[in-house]
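User: quick one, sequence for these tokens?
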């Protein structure tokens, strides 16, 4: 292919690092979303939705100039129509805080918020690392005590439990307060300067701008140096230590195991006191499925009245991948009823009957084909079987003339022969189908009881 043709063909494909969620994956995503919503309700968190685009300056201010995100990962552009500098959101906290300040949400007290949606970071795409990915996040705004740090950690544990995920481990650290970090930073820079000859480019760049991040290095050659570096925790004062101990006490009382990782610093600048990550060994290098902590300075830094805050964000793609890895696939949700029909008059009756069944809360799929003709009875029944429906409702010419419908049970004990088929007056169809569904569920439960 010529270069132009290759380019043209590429332009009609998805953007690199940005994925489609295909129908086959929908049950997994929906299982995650359902579990997340019910967990968030259980803790009294309310949803907030903010635009996908914000002023670039919001993220520069909110995330920090010397972070990976702001330095090299943002999708920023100039609005061609009015010259505004805009950015596709790389994370959710800055916008949630922006909105909270803008709409004065804390006027009547602290707020527990959650959000979900796509985030954008220009990174090298690989397993678990994409350019458009999705996060679920929670932010507890206006609470200062260690009880809320512990609460947001318990929330994550509850979600893993609800999803059936095991072996996700919790790492915990405290970043103390700014003055404590400053004292540590001085010592740390002195220490790191002694390793100039082995530091990689990234680390050299961060040595004076963000030395804590040097300890976050994934470079194997630097691990020993990082392990022996002065530990921030040794620089914490009484108050910071008491807060950290408070969090740990609640976690222990709730039987949440954790490991203190003195090198855990998190990628974003705005954290203080508690920071944590949830990590799995089953996803290779991209094993962090959630991270969070306290960010008390942020609200004031962004122009709000000073208010403490903490929160977390989880990477949904990584969690979906882990669910897949652990074979925690839910069954694809089939429909309840598949409508089989033959002839124009029957198609119309079928359409009416389907609406009545849906009125009663059932999920109903109408048989339809690419050529607009309904096809043979046999081919329709094949579709009905493939749909996963519990029942087929069959309306042909005879049924239309008699004002009836045939109800056939699918997925019955003897699949080859199919289940019983009953002729039902059209006016009693809804009642009959619901009754038959209840019977089928009860029969299934009895079978399960017998097996136990
Ligand atoms: P990492 O160290 O893996 O780059 P991070 O510190 O940049 O992560 P956060 O900003 O804390 O990540 O985002 C919270 C979560 O969002 C991460 O723990 C991860 O699960 C997920 N995440 C972050 N970046 C990506 C990405 N590019 N693709 C998919 N998921 C991501
Ligand atoms: Mg990152």
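Assistant:
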């Amino acid at each position: 292919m010529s270069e132009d043709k290759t380019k043209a063909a590429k332009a009609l494909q998805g953007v690199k690092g940005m994925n489609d969620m295909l129908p086959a994956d929908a049950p997994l995503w929906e299982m995650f979303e359902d579990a997340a919503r019910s967990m968030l309700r259980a803790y009294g968190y309310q949803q907030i939705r903010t635009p996908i685009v914000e002023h670039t300056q919001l993220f520069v201010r909110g995330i920090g100039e010397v972070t990976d995100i702001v330095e090299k990962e943002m999708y920023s552009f100039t609005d061609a129509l009015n010259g505004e500098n805009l950015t596709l959101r790389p994370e959710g906290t800055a916008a949630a805080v922006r909105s909270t300040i803008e709409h004065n949400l804390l006027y009547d007290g602290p707020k527990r918020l959650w959000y979900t949606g796509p985030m954008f970071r220009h990174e090298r795409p690989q397993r678990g690392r994409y350019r458009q990915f999705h996060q679920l996040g929670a932010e507890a705004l206006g609470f200062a005590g260690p009880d809320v740090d512990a609460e947001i950690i318990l929330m994550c544990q509850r979600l893993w439990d609800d999803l059936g995920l095991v072996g996700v481990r919790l790492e915990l650290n405290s970043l103390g307060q700014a003055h404590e970090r400053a004292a540590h930073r001085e010592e740390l820079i002195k220490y790191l300067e002694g390793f100039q000859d082995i530091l990689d480019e990234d680390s050299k760049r961060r040595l004076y701008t963000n030395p804590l991040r040097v300890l976050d290095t994934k470079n194997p050659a630097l691990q020993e140096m990082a392990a022996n570096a002065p530990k921030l925790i040794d620089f914490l004062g009484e108050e910071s230590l008491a807060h950290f101990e408070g969090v740990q006490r609640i976690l222990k009382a709730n039987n949440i195991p954790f490991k203190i990782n003195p090198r855990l610093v998190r990628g974003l600048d705005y954290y203080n006191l508690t920071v944590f990550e949830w990590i799995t060994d089953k996803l290779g290098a991209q094993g962090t499925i959630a991270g969070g902590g306290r960010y008390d300075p942020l609200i004031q830094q962004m122009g709000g009245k000073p208010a403490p805050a903490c929160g977390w964000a989880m990477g949904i793609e990584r969690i979906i991948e882990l669910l897949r890895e652990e074979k925690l696939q839910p069954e694809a949700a089939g429909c309840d009823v598949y409508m089989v029909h033959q002839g124009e008059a029957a198609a119309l009756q079928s359409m009416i009957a389907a609406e009545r069944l849906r009125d009663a809360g059932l999920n109903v799929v109408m048989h339809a084909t690419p050529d607009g003709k309904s096809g043979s009875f046999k081919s329709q029944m094949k579709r009905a079987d493939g749909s996963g429906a519990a029942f087929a409702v069959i309306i042909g010419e005879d049924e239309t003339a008699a004002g009836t419908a045939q109800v056939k049970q699918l997925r019955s004990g003897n699949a080859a022969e199919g289940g019983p088929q009953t002729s039902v007056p059209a006016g009693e169809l809804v009642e009959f189908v619901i009754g038959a569904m209840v019977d089928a569920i009860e029969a299934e439960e009895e079978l399960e009881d017998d097996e136990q």
